[in-house]
């Protein structure tokens, strides 16, 4: 007999977020294992032909094929949904698979999207290059400007798409206003919440319809696997997303799902400690670099909005050097502890030069409009002693003349 305490709403609805992150979605097999079982199987067997027919017809519960369901992946989906306050969730192979699926599953030729101009480079490729191939137009706006959202609405606008905080400019979107505006016009909001996760902010609480993730980042949090997720209403997940996912196959492997389940158990601890470390490092850097982009610091122009929407600032921020690409790269090359890496949300401190890495593909003109300059460095503060990270940055800054 399987125990489904972690998927029983009568039990899980009483749990607080930290408990959901450890136990939510858990199903135990007859062996009674404490850790979630890793079920590595592409297919399933059935007691009789009538059972499999009923499952494929949607008349009976149960597994049919791991492109549609897998016990380990299903546990992750239930857990993320609980943590988000969502009715349902579907896991994806990567973060970009999640973004692509969340958009394409609901858009048709002739539709229009309003998107934030400050976004991860691959997200900008979706809106700028992929969607136009299918006759879907996009207006990109300064997401910090509430009036710009309303001004960009067209009769055929179907989706608002944005990140907050944005990668790598750390722009903050007023979710209450933007999501309320979308609902008033029958527009679906899709929010990339990878920089914060549900531990630091829950977009659905501000009226968002869909939350999409690179679970590669803070959810795994230790640089091990690629994963993504899309959460929202049961209607959206089952009627819009599931048909797209079933027939295109951007599915998460059971092993990667199991690793992310393990990561979620410590997500609250890591996110809060890394936020604390980020504040300490940010305060040090603020006195040494020309421009700081850290929503946790009062110097950030949207600090008050970030504080109102986020439980803590998160581990990621950016800063800008006056010496352009050469000085930025010299600083990265001078680091001894902090690794040069384009990943984020890791337990290790990482830094990158967005203009030549994560945002290289969007081109110099788009980068200028987005505010991704040649002197910008994005940094992820990990779980090391923040004083060691500060010492490393201090040495590197001195070496480049700062």
Task: Explain this structure.
With 402 residues, the chain is of the alpha/beta class. It has two domains: 5-265, Aspartate Aminotransferase, domain 2 (3-Layer(aba) Sandwich); 268-399, Aspartate Aminotransferase, domain 1. Helices cover 42% and strands 14% of the residues. The chain is built from 17 helices and twelve strands. The chain has helices at 9-12, 17-23, 49-56, 71-84, 95-104, 121-133, 146-152, 175-184, 197-200, 216-220, 234-248, 254-265, 267-286, 303-309, 324-334, 364-370, 386-399, and strands at residues 88-92, 112-116, 137-141, 157-163, 188-192, 210-214, 228-232, 291-293, 316-320, 339-340, 350-352, 376-380. The strands form two sheets. Strands 1-7-6-5-4-2-3 form a seven-stranded mixed beta sheet, sandwiched between helices. Strands 8-9-12-11-10 form a five-stranded mixed beta sheet. Strand 4, helix 8 and strand 5 form a beta-alpha-beta unit. Helix 2 (17-23) runs antiparallel to helix 4 (71-84), helix 5 (95-104) runs parallel beside helix 6 (121-133) and helix 13 runs parallel beside helix 17. The mean pLDDT is 95.
Can you describe this structure in just a few lines?
This protein is an alpha/beta fold and 402 residues long. Helix content is 42%, strand content 14%.
State the fourth-level CATH superfamily of the largest domain: Type I PLP-dependent aspartate aminotransferase-like (Major domain)
Shape assignment = globular
Strand portion, in percent? 5-15%
Order of helices and strands: HHHHEHEHEHEHEHEHEHHHEHEHEEHEH
């Amino acid at each position: 007999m399987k125990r489904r305490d972690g998927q029983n709403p009568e039990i899980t609805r009483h749990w607080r977020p930290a408990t959901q992150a450890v136990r939510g979605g858990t199903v135990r097999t007859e062996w009674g294992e404490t850790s979630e079982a890793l079920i590595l199987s592409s297919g399933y067997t059935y007691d009789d032909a009538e059972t499999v027919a009923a499952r494929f017809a949607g008349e009976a519960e149960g597994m049919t094929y791991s492109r549609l369901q897998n016990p380990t992946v299903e546990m992750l989906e239930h857990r993320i949904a609980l943590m988000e306050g969502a009715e349902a969730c579907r896991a994806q192979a990567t973060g970009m698979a999640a973004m692509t699926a969340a958009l394409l599953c609901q858009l048709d030729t002739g539709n229009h999207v309003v998107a934030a101009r400050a976004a991860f480079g691959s997200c900008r490729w979706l809106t700028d290059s992929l969607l136009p191939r299918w006759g879907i137009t996009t207006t990109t706006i300064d997401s910090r400007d509430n009036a710009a959202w309303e001004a960009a609405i067209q009769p055929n606008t179907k989706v608002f798409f944005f990140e907050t905080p944005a990668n790598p400019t750390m722009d903050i979107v007023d979710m209450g206003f933007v999501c309320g505006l979308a609902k008033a016009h029958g527009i679906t909001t899709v929010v990339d919440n990878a920089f914060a996760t549900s531990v630091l902010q829950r977009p659905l609480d501000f009226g968002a319809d869909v939350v999409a993730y690179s679970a590669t980042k803070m959810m795994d949090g230790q640089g091990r696997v690629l994963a993504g997720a899309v959460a929202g209403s049961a209607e959206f997940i089952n009627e819009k997303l599931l048909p797209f996912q079933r027939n295109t196959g951007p599915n998460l492997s059971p092993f990667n799902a199991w690793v992310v389940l393990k990561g979620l158990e410590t997500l609250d601890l890591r996110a809060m400690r890394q936020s604390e470390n980020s504040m300490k490092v940010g305060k040090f850097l603020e006195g040494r670099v020309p421009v700081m982009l850290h929503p946790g610091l009062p110097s950030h122009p949207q600090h008050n909005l970030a504080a109102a929407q986020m439980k803590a600032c998160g581990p990621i921020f950016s800063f800008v050097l006056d010496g352009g690409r050469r000085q930025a790269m010299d600083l990265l090359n001078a680091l001894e502890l902090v690794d040069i890496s384009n990943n984020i949300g890791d337990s290790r401190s990482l830094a990158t030069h967005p203009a030549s890495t994560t945002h290289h593909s969007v081109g110099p003109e788009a980068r200028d409009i987005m505010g991704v300059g040649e002197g910008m460095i994005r940094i992820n503060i990990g779980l090391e002693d923040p004083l060691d990270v500060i010492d490393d940055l201090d040495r590197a800054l001195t070496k480049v003349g700062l």
